[in-house]
């Protein structure tokens, strides 16, 4: 090796580690992240699998969208209570039985579809999955405890978690679509149920990084924190973007490639999230939502103007670039507003609002597809993004008026 080459190698060795390498230097972080990724992958599988199962067996995207919407709506009601129990008694004691109950609900849905049971049984079975623990929120609670005195590292951790969310939602639909089309319609749900329970068991086994349980009266409810409710409204509208895009894209593509097309949007968001984690200066929530609204015009223009699946796929990839910065900025604000000792509950409230929005978006997207066609369905996520932008702008104006 020549002299300049040796000097270059020494310089690289002396270079300080990057933010992500420093993030995982703490013992136990890699282990709980591995289990958490396994548990989160099914989150991108269950919705697609349910839509494919129900629509394929009962011949109605409207019914499929309504079933998933009803399950998400029930989850939005149950999840905060599950998170409150997690904060009070610890992640390991609550998450495992909660995941087991959710898996039983998924299995019940599989049986109902397989037996072509009456439609009402599908709603009941999918509602039983509402106890599924928010493993993403539990992971963020661990990072918040580990890096409570290091805002830069916490920003990187939140960006990584959002990128992990997008990675799971990128791979999950693809895996679900492939399994359901290549094997049988219930294969995606069965695989997701196995991964969920396995991942939760691995995640909760990492006790060294688990936040300690908080007593019941440790602090007030996160819902009462100033600014929290307007922020949850923003998450609600943002969730409608995700829910409607999923159902509309499944109907527009209508085939095994639908999962891959949906995965492209998550891929764009995942890449943007990782880049965002390296940038120390964050962008405001209103600016992020403005970018999301502008970019969500692309799928509508591609679908209505060309009717081409590749054009829609590329537009979703570009549109996804605004998702992760928006979610990272919003989740960071939730962490700041949440009282000490209620971190998991605060994170779950944000996810609950997202789920409620996803439920509304799924139902709205399904109805629009049924009555106006798949191309027109892309107007639903555009309107939802505009609503989220308006809510964020109104919340900022109210906050300024209150401090004036």
Automatic annotation (TrEMBL):
GO terms for molecular function: transmembrane transporter activity. The chain crosses the membrane at residues 37-55, 61-82, 94-114, 230-251, 257-275, 282-302, 308-328, 349-369, 375-394. The keyword Cytoplasm does not apply. Keywords: Membrane, Transmembrane, Transmembrane helix. The keyword Disulfide bond does not apply. This is MFS transporter. It comes from Streptomyces genisteinicus.
């Amino acid at each position: 090796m020549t002299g300049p080459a040796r000097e270059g190698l020494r310089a690289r060795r002396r270079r300080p580690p990057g933010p992500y390498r420093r993030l995982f230097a703490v013992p136990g972080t890699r282990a709980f992240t591995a289990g958490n990724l396994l548990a989160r992958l099914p989150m991108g599988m269950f919705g697609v699998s349910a839509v494919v199962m129900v629509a394929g067996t009962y011949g109605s995207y409207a019914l499929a969208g309504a079933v998933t919407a009803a399950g998400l709506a029930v989850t939005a009601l149950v999840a905060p209570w599950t998170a409150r129990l997690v904060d009070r008694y610890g992640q390991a004691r609550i998450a495992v039985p909660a995941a087991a109950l959710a898996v039983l609900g998924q299995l019940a849905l599989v049986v109902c579809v397989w037996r072509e049971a009456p439609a009402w049984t599908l709603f009941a079975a999918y509602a039983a999955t509402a106890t599924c623990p928010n493993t993403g929120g539990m992971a963020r609670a661990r990072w918040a405890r580990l890096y409570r005195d290091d805002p830069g590292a916490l920003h990187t951790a939140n960006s990584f978690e959002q990128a992990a969310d997008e990675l799971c939602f990128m791979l999950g639909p693809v895996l679900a679509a492939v399994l359901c089309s290549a094997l049988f319609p219930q294969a995606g749900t069965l695989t997701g149920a196995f991964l969920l329970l396995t991942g939760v068991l691995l995640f909760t086994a990492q006790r060294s990084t688990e936040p300690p349980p908080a007593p019941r009266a440790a602090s007030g409810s996160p819902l009462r924190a100033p600014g929290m409710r307007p922020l949850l409204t923003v998450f609600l509208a943002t969730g409608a973007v995700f829910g409607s895009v999923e159902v509309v894209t499944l109907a527009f593509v209508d085939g095994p490639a639908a999962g891959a097309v949906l995965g492209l949007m998550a891929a764009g968001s995942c890449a943007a999230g990782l880049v965002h984690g390296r940038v120390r200066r964050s962008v405001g929530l209103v600016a992020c939502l403005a970018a999301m609204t502008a970019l969500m015009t692309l799928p509508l223009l591609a679908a209505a103007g060309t009717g081409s699946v590749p054009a829609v796929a590329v537009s979703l990839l570009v549109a996804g670039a605004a998702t992760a910065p928006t979610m990272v900025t919003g989740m960071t604000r939730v962490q700041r507003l949440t009282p000490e000792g209620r971190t998991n509950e605060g994170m779950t409230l944000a996810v609950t609002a997202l789920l409620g929005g996803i439920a509304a978006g799924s139902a709205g997207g399904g109805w629009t597809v049924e009555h106006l066609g798949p191309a027109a369905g892309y107007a639903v996520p555009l309107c939802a993004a505009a609503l989220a932008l308006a809510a964020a702008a109104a919340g900022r104006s109210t906050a300024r008026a209150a401090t004036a």
